[in-house]
TrEMBL record:
Keywords: Acyltransferase, Transferase. Transmembrane segments: none annotated. The keyword Transcription regulation does not apply. InterPro entries: ACP_syn_III_C, Thiolase-like. Residues 219-308 form the Beta-ketoacyl-[acyl-carrier-protein] synthase III C-terminal domain. The keyword Plastid does not apply. This is 3-oxoacyl-ACP synthase. PANTHER family: 3-OXOACYL-[ACYL-CARRIER-PROTEIN] SYNTHASE 3, BETA-KETOACYL-[ACYL-CARRIER-PROTEIN] SYNTHASE III.
C-alpha cells in the first residue's frame, strides 16, 4: 500500500507554552524546563474551530472532489475515546461535508496517539482484501484540546491542535509502506494517572521500548537503520529522543526531524504525518529515500512505520 496524498491543517492562532502551563499550575522552574530543555515554545489552539472544521480543512488539501466515489473507507484515528457529547458525531458530519456519506466510516482509539499508524495499516489491509485497485481509504488524525487532561502530559508533551488527512491506496509509488511494527506494554495502562513508581519505571524503559519497535519495523521492511534517511517522530520531550537515539546507536540528531516541536507541540496522532509533509516541503526527502514514522500512545503502545518516498 502507499500514502497517495497527505494534507494537514494547523490553526493560525497560537498560545505561548509558558501561558499554557501557568494556567494549569506549573511553577516557573518546571515551565522553564519544558521550554529550555524539552523544546516546547508555542502551540496552535483555536477555540473558534471545532473538530469537524479542522478535519474538513485537513482533507481539503487532498482534492477529493469528483473522486468521492472511490473512497471506500474513512477511519478516524483518535487518542481519546470520546471527543464530543452524545449524540454529536463529528466523524459523521465530516463525511457529510466531504461528500463521503456512502463510505464505511469508523473510529480507532485503542492505540491512543499511535492509532494513526494502526489506521493506515488497517486501511491498507481493508483495501487489499477488497481487491479493487481504484479504491481508496481516508485516514483522519488530530483532536481538539478541550480538557486539561488533553492539553498537557507533564514532562512529556504540550498538546497542540493540528489535523492530518491521509489518502491510502492499495498500491502506488508516492510513499510506499514497507514495514510496520507495534507493541503494547499493558502494565502501564493507567498512563498519566500512574503512581510515582510506575511512572518512573515507564520513563526508564521508554527509550529502549521505542528503539526496539523502530528496529522491528525496519527489519520487517527488510532494511537496516543505515537505510533510513529520516526519522519522522511524534513531537514529545526533546530530551527523551536523545535516549532513543543512543539505544539505536545513531550519532547526533541530524536524521531526526524535530523542526515542528517548538511551534506545534504534540498534535496527538497527526504528528508524524504533519512532519512528513514538512520534510517533503523542505526537500529533506528525495525519491527513493526511506523514512520511519513513530508514535507512542498512552497505555502504552509503541508503534513505527517505514516508508519509501
Amino acid at each position: 500500500m502507499s500514502l497517495e496524498a497527505v494534507s494537514s491543517h494547523i490553526p493560525s492562532r497560537r498560545v505561548r507554552v509558558s501561558e499554557y502551563l501557568r494556567r494549569y499550575g506549573f511553577n516557573e522552574k518546571r515551565i522553564d524546563m519544558h521550554i529550555r530543555y524539552f523544546g516546547f515554545g508555542e502551540v496552535p489552539c483555536d477555540p473558534d474551530e471545532g473538530p469537524v472544521e479542522q478535519l474538513v480543512a485537513a482533507a481539503a488539501g487532498l482534492a477529493l472532489r469528483g473522486r468521492e466515489h472511490r473512497v471506500r473507507y474513512v477511519l478516524h484515528a483518535r487518542t481519546m475515546p470520546v471527543t464530543a457529547p452524545y449524540p454529536v458525531n463529528p466523524l459523521q458530519r465530516v463525511c457529510e461535508e466531504l461528500g463521503l456519506a456512502d463510505s464505511t466510516a469508523f473510529t480507532l482509539t485503542q492505540h491512543a496517539c499511535a492509532s494513526s499508524l494502526l489506521a493506515v495499516q488497517l486501511a491498507g489491509q481493508l483495501l487489499a482484501d477488497d481487491g479493487d485497485p481504484d479504491a481508496r481509504a481516508l485516514v483522519l488524525a488530530g483532536e481538539k484540546t478541550f480538557t486539561s487532561a488533553a492539553q498537557v502530559i507533564a514532562d512529556t508533551g504540550v498538546m497542540g491542535e493540528g489535523a492530518a488527512a491521509i489518502l491510502v491506496a492499495p498500491q502506488g509509488g508516492r510513499d510506499r509502506v514497507l514495514g510496520y511494527a507495534t507493541h503494547t506494554l499493558g502494565e502501564f495502562h493507567s498512563a498519566p494517572w500512574s503512581d510515582e513508581a510506575t511512572s518512573a519505571r515507564f520513563n526508564q524503559i521508554y527509550p529502549k521500548a521505542l528503539a526496539e519497535v523502530m528496529l522491528a519495523a525496519v527489519e520487517t521492511a527488510g532494511l537496516t537503520l543505515d537505510d533510513i534517511t529520516l526519522v519522522l517522530p511524534h513531537n514529545v520531550n526533546r530530551m527523551s529522543w536523545l535516549g532513543v537515539l543512543r539505544h539505536l546507536g545513531i550519532q547526533g540528531s541530524g536524521r531526526l526531524f524535530l523542526d515542528n516541536l517548538a511551534t506545534l507541540g504534540h498534535c496527538f496522532g497527526a504528528d508524524a504525518f504533519i512532519n512528513l509533509q514538512s520534510a517533503r516541503a523542505q526537500g529533506r526527502l528525495r525519491t527513493g529515500d526511506r523514512s520511519i514514522m513513530t508514535a507512542v500512545g498512552l497505555g502504552a503502545t509503541f508503534s513505527a512505520m517505514v516508508l519509501q518516498h
